[in-house]
Amino acid sequence: MTIAISTKITHDDLLKMPEGNLPREIIDGELIVNLSPSAYHQRIVTRFVHMIAGFLDDHPVGEVLGSPLDTILASDQVVQPDLLYVSNERAGIVERWVYGAPDLAVEVISETSRRRDEVRKRELYEQFGVAEYWIVDPEARSVKVYRRGASGGYDHPVLITAAHDKTLTTPLLPGLNIDLAKVFAE
């Protein structure tokens, strides 16, 4: 007789581990330790945070937060989006960590995170009710935008580029115009 034992990691297990400097996530109960992001990656995240925070200063409809911040979708599904936005109507999910799906999750991809961000995290964000998900590609200078459709799942993504479209907008924050040339400036 063979017995298969599967140990899934949970957020409680993560809290018992020694602190470290590398970002840690739990996807499907598996602990994932990510490499630290590049300086360019962090510049992009910082620019997005500043642009959204500046908009929210004038239009206080929610809060933008940057990583690292545990976003607990389920005990065995703990992600750290590069940035997230939570509307005032859903502000109750933000405590010490975020307990539930933010309105917007943004991931700036790297070669080591590309598949996970484009496939599994997209599936998780869709499954747990994130209204909008942006996948930011620094190399292509583009943002792939997934929005919830009438079916409840994500519609086909819209690709917005710095070269062609130039400006990123979202119905979550009417009036916000993100200049992608500024975001991707090196």
Task: Tell me what you see in this structure.
With 186 residues, this protein is an alpha+beta fold. 24% of the residues lie in helices and 28% in strands. The chain contains 4 helices and 13 strands. The strands form 4 sheets. It has a 6-stranded mixed sheet, with helices on both faces. A 3-stranded mixed sheet has the order 5-4-7, with no helix packed on it. Strands 1-2 form a two-stranded antiparallel sheet. The longest helix has 20 residues. It starts with 10 loop residues before the first helix and ends with a helix.
Brief summary of the model shown:
This protein has 4 helices and 13 strands. With 186 residues, it is an alpha+beta fold.
Comma- or semicolon-separated keywords:
about 190 residues, globular, single chain, alpha+beta, six-stranded mixed beta sheet, 4 helices, 13 strands
Q: Which overall shape is indicated by the principal axes computed on the Cα atoms?
A: globular
- Rounded mean pLDDT is 93
The rounded distance between the terminal residues' Cα atoms is 59 Å
Alpha-beta content class: alpha+beta
Unreliable stretches, pLDDT < 50, 5 or more residues? none
**Oligomeric description of these chains:** single chain
Number of helices: 4
Bin the strand percentage: 25-35%
Largest sheet: 6 strands, mixed
Strand order of the largest sheet: 3-6-8-9-10-11
Strand and helix order:
HEEHEEEEEEHEEEEEH
Helicity, as a percent range: 10-25%
Q: Count the strands? A: 13
Q: What is the radius of gyration?
A: 17 Å
